[in-house]
């Protein structure tokens, strides 16, 4: 098999081994301690962990800065002892009663101040865990009704917040993770185009990148591999959250390739063609187990996602490039479609 151009290492977050609660019913699996999740990670084929600030240091709003830093350093030791790297730490700004009407874009100046202060603590935790990458998912920066927030002001408030973060730490790199809806009805930074444009509006565009999540692109009606390609063309694809999504439903976070294998193939293919991972980028699996899954089989969604990634990588590197070029030249896309399907399905061609 031809050698792969990309260099892949994989990560997930503690929230990806969950208890199966949903808005209509309680949890159905018992919680797994973080230490155990970290121990399980390598055996599942992963090398890195992603954190929210309060995954790394629980209840941090009630702790002093010194206490938070001491706990973050303790977490670094735990990761080191398991040989696990931290990919990023993301500020979790959507749980606090202070951010009900938004964090960086709240109408309440006290809420905005809280959001910035909390983000600075998140940056300090990033440093303690020896990562310079912070993911920002702008969960509550949007509206339930348009009249409640001014879209121009919202955009400029987010830009100002990003500038404050970039000024706070000169080594910080920020990855904006866009999502069009959920929990809000209409998010202000809804697609990868918005995320990249937002980076260019800041004082340090060179430290602004983005993260494409499969499900979020699909929820915006877009093809995730096109979104990845657009970000790659800008040199801004600094991480991905692979998963799957059955069209315009709630955010499903299904196992990678579970719904649309061809979509999954094209995501792997675009990453592979551009040597993803050569600059240290991680492949994150932002997947959730089905609620029906039993306690004893609560990590299959992670290993299944990885298995499909590796299989599709094989399909990407063995794709007949010569034939592809010939069919493109002949403008015979029906035949290219047939070849692609035969290749993916292992049919005789
Ligand atoms: C939710 C997002 C969420 C983020 C995580 C990291 O839809 O995908 O899981 O990726 O909070 O910021
Ligand atoms: Mg995500």
Fold and architecture overview:
By secondary structure, the chain is of the alpha/beta class. The chain is built from twelve helices and ten strands. The strands form two sheets. The protein has an eight-stranded parallel β-sheet with strand order 3-2-1-10-9-8-6-4. β9, α9 and β10 (282-285) form a beta-alpha-beta unit. α3 packs parallel to α4 and α9 crosses α10. The chain starts with 9 loop residues before the first strand and ends with a helix. The structure holds D-glucose (GLO) and magnesium ion. Residues 177, 213, 241, 286 line the site of magnesium ion. Residues 177, 213, 241, 286 line the site of magnesium ion (MG).
Number of strands: 10
N-C termini distance: 18 Å
**What is the CATH level 1 assignment of the largest domain?**
Alpha Beta
Nearest-integer average pLDDT: 97
Q: Could you list the spans in which at least 5 consecutive residues all have pLDDT below 50?
A: none
* CATH third-level topology of the largest domain: TIM Barrel
In CATH, the architecture of the largest domain is Alpha-Beta Barrel
Provide the helix percentage.
40-55%
In short:
By secondary structure, the chain is α/β, with parallel strands linked by helices. It is 43% helix and 13% strand. Strand 1, helix 1 and strand 2 (48-52) form a beta-alpha-beta unit.
């Amino acid at each position: 098999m031809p050698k792969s151009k990309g260099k892949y290492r994989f990560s997930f977050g503690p929230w990806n081994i969950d208890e199966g609660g949903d808005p209509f019913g309680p949890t159905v699996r018992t919680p797994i301690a973080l230490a155990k999740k970290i121990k399980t990670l390598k055996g599942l084929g992963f090398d890195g962990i992603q954190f929210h600030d309060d995954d790394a240091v629980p209840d941090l709003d009630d702790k002093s800065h010194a206490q938070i830093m001491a706990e973050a350093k303790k977490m670094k030791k735990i990761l080191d002892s398991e040989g696990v790297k931290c990919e990023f730490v993301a500020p979790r700004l959507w749980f606090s009663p202070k951010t009900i009407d938004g964090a960086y874009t709240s109408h309440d100046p006290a809420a905005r101040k809280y959001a910035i202060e909390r983000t600075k603590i998140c940056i300090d935790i990033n440093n303690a865990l020896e990562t310079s990458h912070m993911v920002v998912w702008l969960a509550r920066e949007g509206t339930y009704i348009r009249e409640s927030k001014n879209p121009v002001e919202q955009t400029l408030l987010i830009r100002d917040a990003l500038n404050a973060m970039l000024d706070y730490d000169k080594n910080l790199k920020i990855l904006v993770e866009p999502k069009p809806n959920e929990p809000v009805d209409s998010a202000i930074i809804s697609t990868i185009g918005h995320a990249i444009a937002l980076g260019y509006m800041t004082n340090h565009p060179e430290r602004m990148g983005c993260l494409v999540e499969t499900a979020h692109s699909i929820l915006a009606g877009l093809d995730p591999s096109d979104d990845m390609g657009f970000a790659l063309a800008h040199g801004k694809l600094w991480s991905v959250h692979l998963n799957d999504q059955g069209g315009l439903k709630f955010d499903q976070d299904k196992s990678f390739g579970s719904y649309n294998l061809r979509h999954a193939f094209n995501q792997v293919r675009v990453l592979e063609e551009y040597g993803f991972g050569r600059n240290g980028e991680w492949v994150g699996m932002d997947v959730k187990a089905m609620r029906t899954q039993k306690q004893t089989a609560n990590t299959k969604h992670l290993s299944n996602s990885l298995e499909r990634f590796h299989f599709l990588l094989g399909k990407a590197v063995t794709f007949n490039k010569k034939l592809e070029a010939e069919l493109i030249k002949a403008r015979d896309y029906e035949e290219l479609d047939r070849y692609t399907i035969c290749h993916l399905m292992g049919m005789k061609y």
